[in-house]
From TrEMBL:
<feature type="region of interest" description="Disordered">
    <location>
        <begin position="371"/>
        <end position="394"/>
    </location>
</feature>
<dbReference type="InterPro" id="IPR027417">
    <property type="entry name" value="P-loop_NTPase"/>
</dbReference>
<dbReference type="InterPro" id="IPR003439">
    <property type="entry name" value="ABC_transporter-like_ATP-bd"/>
</dbReference>
<dbReference type="InterPro" id="IPR003593">
    <property type="entry name" value="AAA+_ATPase"/>
</dbReference>
<dbReference type="InterPro" id="IPR012340">
    <property type="entry name" value="NA-bd_OB-fold"/>
</dbReference>
<dbReference type="GO" id="GO:0140359">
    <property type="term" value="F:ABC-type transporter activity"/>
</dbReference>
<feature type="compositionally biased region" description="Basic and acidic residues">
    <location>
        <begin position="340"/>
        <end position="349"/>
    </location>
</feature>
<protein>
    <submittedName>
        <fullName>Sugar ABC transporter ATP-binding protein</fullName>
    </submittedName>
</protein>
<feature type="domain" description="ABC transporter">
    <location>
        <begin position="5"/>
        <end position="235"/>
    </location>
</feature>
<dbReference type="Pfam" id="PF08402">
    <property type="entry name" value="TOBE_2"/>
</dbReference>
<dbReference type="GO" id="GO:0016887">
    <property type="term" value="F:ATP hydrolysis activity"/>
</dbReference>
<feature type="region of interest" description="Disordered">
    <location>
        <begin position="338"/>
        <end position="357"/>
    </location>
</feature>
<keyword id="KW-0067">ATP-binding</keyword>
<dbReference type="GO" id="GO:0005524">
    <property type="term" value="F:ATP binding"/>
</dbReference>
<dbReference type="Pfam" id="PF00005">
    <property type="entry name" value="ABC_tran"/>
</dbReference>
<dbReference type="InterPro" id="IPR008995">
    <property type="entry name" value="Mo/tungstate-bd_C_term_dom"/>
</dbReference>
<keyword id="KW-0813">Transport</keyword>
Length: 446
């Protein structure tokens, strides 16, 4: 039997009333593999523990198969949890570790048949008589998974089960987890900060930031249509190119997006998405370009919907099957830490602060900028001639392009580029996607 899990406006706060999970709502279908994805401290493990009953829910509702489950003890939720640190009993053999929850559930029953069946499924029959100290990291994780599988639970809860393993073993076990969960057909909630795991495992991915749900959808949709700057920047390898742009939409000329020393000329007739950009006339926006949206080619080779740029090669990353080329196009990087954070809800008054901020606030802003890398923030609305920003570490280019290794490039070369505007992302000053397919139509007074 598998289980449907529903979270409705669930919140959790610890010390000083700071919410680590803020009004989270999720519907997890029976048999679905849902991945909770986000950076460290975003609240994803807390969500998992609230589902398991290991943490109390401060606000909101939890439904298990449509029945109220907030006050249900963990032992009655029929769920199995796989922990990051394996959580094996060091004084028990693998056989005893797998069979321990079975003996607790049914003291008079013999757990051996289910333990043996689980071991065959995981290919660990020869490890059953070993102690955890005699096992490698991958073997311990298989035993920990076996302990969960042997119970035949209605849901698996996995809290970063592969994060302590090396990359090669992590990739191998990732494929095993995907195959096992498909065969068992059990509802699975999987927590990770690794977007590669999330994209390869999940039927759907729920992206969290600061305890607030940013987007939940299929991996393909989350990648192709990110709701905001944070989702766009968090999903995808290499990281999406985010540049500061300025929309120019004269009535008697072509619409362009200025990127500093160069600009993107939008082809006419304008598509519906590009027509909506007229509302942003004269405003700064954030332009997003995936590395595959730009190719190295002369303007004469442009296809419909492609526009030309030029870039100076600053750095080459040889990956074997491909090369990542870092170009300097004269553009301004536009990863904005404030926009990556969840927006404050309109029903919650924002705290007033002095323009210069306290020392603690300035330190927090600086820490946020360091976590996001070298950035250039958008100017505050209505602020003229801002003071020059302090010098930041030099970044190898402002645009990363993926290409094949047969193209010979060297540092310092001036290279023609073609940008496919069908894969152009534009975000407004609030960090929300306005192109393509905006979540809502922009208003003129915004």
């Amino acid at each position: 039997m598998t289980r449907a899990i529903t979270l409705h406006d669930v919140s959790k706060a610890y010390t000083r009333g700071v919410r680590v999970v803020d009004r989270l709502s999720l519907d997890i279908a029976p048999g679905e593999f849902l991945v909770l994805l986000g950076p460290s401290g975003c609240g994803k493990s807390t969500v998992l523990r609230m589902i398991a009953g290991l943490e109390d829910i401060d606000e909101g509702l939890l439904f298990l198969d449509g029945e109220y489950g907030n006050d249900l003890p963990p032992s009655e939720r029929d769920m199995a949890m796989v922990f990051q640190n394996f959580a094996l009993y060091p004084s028990m053999t693998s056989r005893d570790n797998i069979g321990f929850p079975l003996r607790i559930e049914a003291p008079g029953a013999d757990p051996a048949p289910r333990v043996d069946a689980t071991a065959r499924m995981l290919g660990i029959e020869d490890l059953l008589d070993r102690f955890p100290a005699q096992l490698s990291g991958g073997e311990r994780q298989r035993v920990a998974m076996g302990r969960a599988i042997a119970r035949h639970p209605s849901a698996f809860l996995m809290d970063e089960p592969l994060s302590n393993l090396d990359a090669k073993l992590r990739n191998h076990l990732r494929a095993e987890i995907a195959q096992l969960t498909r065969e068992l057909g059990v509802t699975t909630v999987y927590v990770t900060h690794d977007q590669s795991e999330a994209m390869s495992l999940g039927d759907r991915v729920a992206v969290l930031r600061g305890g607030v749900l940013q987007q939940v959808d299929t991996p393909r949709t989350v990648y192709a249509l990110p709701n905001n700057v944070f989702v766009a920047a968090f999903i995808g390898t290499p990281r999406i190119n985010l540049l500061r742009g300025l929309v120019r939409a004269p009535l008697d000329g072509a619409m362009t997006i200025s990127l500093g020393k160069q600009f993107l000329r939008l082809p006419e007739p304008l598509s519906l998405d590009h027509q909506l950009l007229r509302v942003q006339q004269g405003r700064e926006v954030i332009v997003g370009l995936r590395s595959e949206a730009v190719r190295i080619a002369k303007p004469s080779a442009a296809r419909p919907g492609e526009v030309a740029l030029t870039g100076l090669v600053e750095h080459l990353e040889f990956q074997g099957h491909e090369v990542l080329v870092h170009f300097n196009t004269g553009s301004r990087p536009a990863v904005v830490p404030e926009l990556e954070a969840p927006r404050q809800r309109s029903d919650r008054p924002a705290r007033r602060r002095r323009r210069e901020g306290t020392v603690l606030e300035r330190l927090r802003e600086r820490a946020g900028a360091l976590r996001a890398g070298s950035v250039a923030t958008l100017d505050e609305p209505g602020r003229q001639d801002p003071a020059p920003a302090p010098a930041e570490p030099r970044v190898a280019g402002d645009l990363i392009v993926r290409t094949t290794p047969d193209i010979r490039l060297r540092q310092g070369m001036q290279v023609p580029l073609l940008v496919d505007l069908a894969h152009l992302f534009v975000f407004d000053q609030h960090g929300e996607r306005i192109c393509p397919n905006p979540e809502r139509l922009p208003e003129l007074e915004e």
